[in-house]
Design brief:
Number of helices: 18
Oligomer: single chain
Number of strands: 0
Order of helices and strands: HHHHHHHHHHHHHHHHHH
Distance between the termini: 32 Å
Largest sheet: none
Length: about 425
C-alpha cells in the first residue's frame, strides 16, 4: 500500500515517498549543498541573532558599571521598532540583489557596532543608538538571507534543512552563554562585546565569503525584478497577515524572556552561575525543538505542529510565573518547554513562508513577519524590565506572555491547506 501522495518542500515536486526516500533525499541534497547549509548554520549562530540570547548577560554588568536601571537597559530593546520598519525593505533588497553581498556588508558593519558597544563610556543615548544599529544591521545575517539561501538550495528536505541551518542559533545559545559569562566575569563586559565581534570576523564572515559565493542561490532568480509580486499584491494576501500575526505573537514572547532570562531566574531564587547554565539549557532545548519540528513539518501540517509547541511554551511560562521561588527541577522544566517552543518557532515560520508563498518573494514576506516579530519583541522585552522595576518581579508580565503563546497557536491554525507552490 502506498502512502498518500503529498508535496514535500517545493510544491511542484510531490509524489509518494516512504521514510527511506525522505532520508535519501535529505542526504543527497546535503551531499551537494552542504557548504551552503553549513555557512547558513554558522552565520545565524555567530552573528547578531545570537545577541538576543546573550544580551541578558550584560544587564547586571551594565547596571553596576553605569548605574542604569534594568528598565533603562531593557528600553534598548525598543530598537526593535526601527528593525521592524526596516525588515521588509531589507528583505526586498535581498530578493532583488541576492543574499551574499547583503550578508558580507552587514557582517563588516556588525563588527564595528560590537566594538562601539565595547567602547561605551556611560552615555545612555549612545547605548540606545548602537542598539538600533546592531538590530538593523543584524538583519543581514538573519533568516532574511540565510533561510532564503537554504530554501532555494534544499527542496525535498526543506523543513529538516531549514532546521539544521537555523539551529546554529540554538547551539550558539547553548554554548556561548557559559563561555561569555566566564569572559565577562574575568575580563569585564567590554571583553564580552569584543568577543562577539571576533566571532563574526574570524568565523562567520569567512564561511560566507568562500561558500555562499559558490552557491547557485546567489541572485539568479532574484534579479528579475519584474517577476517579484508588488507590495500591494502581498498586502492583499490574507495568509500573509495571518503568518505575520502568528509570528509576532509566538516568537516575540520567547525572545523577550531570553533577553531577561538570567536576571529573571535570579529573581526566582536561582544562583547566578546556575541561571547562566539554564540560559545555555534553553539553547539546547531550542536546538532540539528546531530539529524535531523540521522533521515533522516535512510530513505533517506545519500550523498544527506550531500550535502544539505553542501550548508547551505557554505551560513553561506559567511555571516561571509560579508564586515565589522556582526550584531547580521546576525551573529546568520551564526552560525546557520554552526552549522547545522557541526552536519550533525558528523553523516553522521560515518553512511556512516557503511552503505557502514560494521563493521569489521569500525575503520580502519573511521581512514582513520580522516587522511583527521585532515590533512585539520591543514591547515584550521592555515590559519584562519595566514590570520588575515597578512590581519587583516578572510574574504579571509572564502571564501575559503565556496568553500570547496560546494566541499565536490559534492564529496558525487559521492558515488553511497548503496551496500549490510557486517559486
Amino acid at each position: 500500500m502506498t502512502e498518500k501522495a503529498r508535496d514535500i518542500g517545493d510544491g511542484g515536486q510531490g509524489g509518494t515517498r516512504n521514510e527511506d526516500h525522505r532520508w535519501q533525499d535529505a542526504i543527497e541534497e546535503w551531499r551537494l549543498n552542504w557548504r551552503i547549509g553549513f555557512a547558513a548554520f554558522i552565520t545565524i549562530g555567530l552573528s547578531h541573532g545570537a545577541y538576543q540570547a546573550l544580551s541578558s548577560l550584560f544587564v547586571l554588568p551594565l547596571q553596576e558599571a553605569f548605574g542604569w536601571s534594568r528598565g533603562q537597559i531593557a528600553f534598548a530593546h525598543y530598537s526593535s521598532l526601527v528593525v521592524a520598519f526596516a525588515a521588509p525593505f531589507v528583505g526586498r533588497a535581498v530578493d532583488r540583489f541576492g543574499a551574499r553581498r547583503i550578508m558580507l556588508c552587514g557582517m563588516v558593519l556588525s563588527i564595528l557596532t560590537y566594538l562601539g558597544l565595547a567602547s561605551m563610556n556611560g552615555a545612555l543615548a549612545l547605548f540606545y543608538m548602537l542598539s538600533v544599529l546592531a538590530g538593523v544591521i543584524g538583519l543581514s545575517a538573519s533568516g532574511l538571507t540565510c533561510s532564503r539561501v537554504v530554501s532555494q538550495s534544499f527542496v525535498r528536505s526543506r523543513g529538516v534543512s531549514l532546521a539544521i541551518a537555523r539551529s546554529g542559533l540554538a547551539l550558539a545559545s547553548a554554548a556561548l552563554p557559559t563561555i561569555l559569562f566566564a569572559i565577562i566575569a574575568r575580563f569585564g563586559w567590554r571583553a564580552g562585546y569584543v568577543t562577539e565581534a571576533l566571532l563574526v570576523l574570524i568565523i562567520a564572515l569567512p564561511v560566507v565569503w568562500f561558500w555562499i559565493g559558490d552557491s547557485r542561490t546567489s541572485a539568479t532568480t532574484a534579479r528579475h525584478d519584474s517577476d517579484l509580486p508588488t507590495w500591494l499584491h502581498l498586502l492583499r494576501e490574507r495568509r500573509v497577515w495571518l503568518l505575520c500575526l502568528g509570528a509576532g505573537l509566538g516568537y516575540a514572547p520567547a525572545t523577550a524572556i531570553m533577553t531577561q532570562l538570567q536576571p529573571l531566574l535570579i529573581s526566582k531564587g536561582v544562583e547566578a552561575d546556575a541561571a547562566a547554565a539554564l540560559v545555555g539549557m534553553a539553547g539546547i532545548a531550542s536546538f532540539a525543538g528546531a530539529i524535531v519540528t523540521g522533521s515533522l513539518v516535512d510530513r505533517f501540517w506545519a500550523p498544527g505542529i506550531a500550535f502544539l509547541f505553542a501550548c508547551g511554551s505557554a505551560a513553561g511560562t506559567c511555571l516561571l510565573a509560579w508564586h515565589g521561588a522556582v526550584d531547580g527541577p521546576m525551573a529546568s522544566l520551564a526552560i525546557l518547554l520554552i526552549g522547545l517552543g522557541l526552536g519550533a518557532e525558528i523553523d516553522v515560520v521560515a518553512y511556512m513562508v516557503a511552503r505557502y508563498f514560494g521563493i521569489r518573494s521569500f525575503s520580502t514576506i519573511y521581512g514582513m513577519t520580522v516587522f511583527f516579530i521585532a515590533f512585539s519583541s520591543a514591547v515584550g522585552a521592555s515590559m519584562l524590565g519595566v514590570a520588575f522595576d515597578r512590581y519587583g518581579n516578572y510574574d504579571a508580565a509572564l502571564l501575559v506572555i503565556a496568553a500570547s503563546f496560546m494566541a499565536a497557536g490559534g492564529v496558525y491554525l487559521m492558515m488553511g491547506r497548503y496551496p500549490k507552490q510557486r517559486d
